[in-house]
Amino acid sequence: MQKKIMKRGKRPELMWGLGLTDELERQITESVGPGFHLRNFPADALPGARELDQEEKPATTWIPWSVWSDLGEHRREQYREQESTQRVLIQEEGDDALEMDRVLGEGFLTVVRAPLTRPKVQDVLFRAKEVTSMYSDIYRMTEEIMLERELLARKTDQLLFLNKILASATESLDPSTILLNAKETLGLVLPVRMLNAVFWSNQAESEVADVEIFLNGKMTPETEGLWVEHLLASAADMGSGPVNGFHILHTDPKRRPEYGLKPGDGKLVTMPLTAGHQTFGCLALLCESGYRLGKDQVETFRSAVNHLGLALRNAMVFKEVKLRADRDGLTRIYNRHSFDERLVYEIKRRRRYNHDLSLLMVDLDHFKQVNDTYGHQAGDMVLRKVGEILTDTFRTTDLPARYGGEEFVVLLPHTSEKAAWKLAERVRGAIENTRFSYDGHDFAVTASIGVASVEAGALTRDDDLIVKADKALYAAKHNGRNMVVISKPQMAQAMLL
User: Fold this and answer.
1) I need a labelling partner for 221 at 20 to 30 A (CA). Which of 14, 175, 455, 484 fits?
2) Cα(443)–Cα(374) distance, rounded to whole angstroms?
3) In this structure, what are the phi and psi dihedrals at residue 480, rounded to the nearest 5 degrees?
4) pLDDT tens readout for residues 69-108
5) Those residues with Cβ within 8 angstroms of residue 134's Cβ, 6 or more apart along the chain or in another chain
6) What whole-number distance in Å separates Cα of residue 181 and Cα of residue 199?
7) Phi and psi for 361 in degrees, rounded to 5?
8) What is the DSSP letter of 93?
9) At 122, is the secondary structure helix, strand, or coil?
């Protein structure tokens, strides 16, 4: 499994410990290395207002549950108010397991159980970095939008319209909501009957574009086809390039009479959306026939669309930021953080509705030899292909994720262990039968898969499912690799009959 390399600046990153034992302090210090400085406060001398008001804030604070539970609510709130600090809860031996909802409710990023091994500590620090980076991006975008709002607030009565556009556009970072609000606000200047939009983004190292089409509401297939044809043609005229594929969304989920209007049923105005001198989409506004705007209204309307374009661009960037936060950068399937969150959710659903829940743990056999023999780029090619196999094999309700290095997991709601075994065999066979070619060399890889499932009332801890699947995976590795092993021996015997 590939090790994470943590890059730090010359100045060590400050961390706090609140009442850490000598052993916990040693475990954390040895796990993080010289790029961090851990300042541990004794349990009877925890930081007060003076330390909390210092300019340099700790990036991470480590707090044992025994220390946190002894604090008064006022003292806890003081620590929660340190928004730039990610708090990590430590549970020691003997502590009762805590539900993740309670951990989050107490203001913690996550909880780890002692002993604090190097992988545990580094996983927490990387997760804290991801969350901090995402919050920073969102905060920066929000600041930019609010700055635009302040500028528009100083305009004359005519520019109050622009203020309404921006106010409605900045209520959300969801493109559908922005477009729905824009139809109502733009109607103050122009009698807009329908507002549809198209956005495109070019794939890296390719001239083709992925397209998203936002239609005002649900239409008949014939009407929808006419609008899709018009929007795709407009996108091509404005520089989208060849279309790789498109996805249709509706800003209003209801079917209304006015959504039966076709592109020719009025005056159609198609306007580009730009940001940073780059055209990324266009609006198609169907207005009443014969309506004309004055020169000043045209300028105001263009300014409104420009501001709307900025808001929509920010919304699309936000979607991409969230996608990066949820997905693995190499394989584009979900990452471990997304898997951990979904696992907690599915376990709670299973307990409530008493349905089957299964897990596959997939590990590529001898993957280090691929990297050593053909190079890491060849290894990356293999990982991407395995990600594609997992995406193509499972339902949209299933969750395949990269667990780390060459290890993958697949969460299967409403799936029995027998059905999960069949899916695992299909995946194992697909990987085994895939032929890879890199730099003139042809090669193949295999995978070992562990399968685990839970029955009604059987699961007592959130990590039992992972533990069982991991043990099954270990058995598959130990027994010769390139096989599927089920956590229950009696079930495994039944599969062979």
Assistant:
1) 175
2) 9
3) 125, -5
4) 999 898 899 898 888 888 999 998 888 888 888 888 888 9
5) 321, 322, 325
6) 17
7) -120, 115
8) T
9) helix
Q: Identify the three-state secondary structure at position 278.
A: strand
Question: Between 293 and 373, whose confidence is greater?
Answer: 373
Q: What angle do CA 79, 84, 89 make, to 5 degrees?
A: 50
Tell me the two tokens of residue 201.
């983004």
Averaged pLDDT score across all residues of the chain: 85
> One-letter amino acid identity for 421?
W
CB atoms within 10 A of CB 420: 24
The Cα 188–Cα 165 span in angstroms is 10
Query: Where does residue 454 rank: exposed (0-12), middle (13-18), buried (19+ CB within 10 A)?
Result: buried
Q: Does position 153 have pLDDT exceeding 80, yes or no? A: no
Residues in the chain: 497
The two three-digit tokens of residue 18, written as one number: 């609140």
For residues 464 and 429, the answer to whether their CB atoms sit within 8 Å is no
Residue that is written with structure tokens 């545990």 in the block: 120
Cα angle at 335 between 376 and 341, to 5 degrees? 160
Which residues make beta-bridge pairs with 285? 195, 269
Cα(358)–Cα(420) distance, integer angstroms: 7
**The token pair that represents 133 in the structure block:** 């980076």
Copy the structure tokens of residue 137: 């991006």
Query: Amino acid identity of 242?
Result: P
Longest dimension (CA), the chain: 81
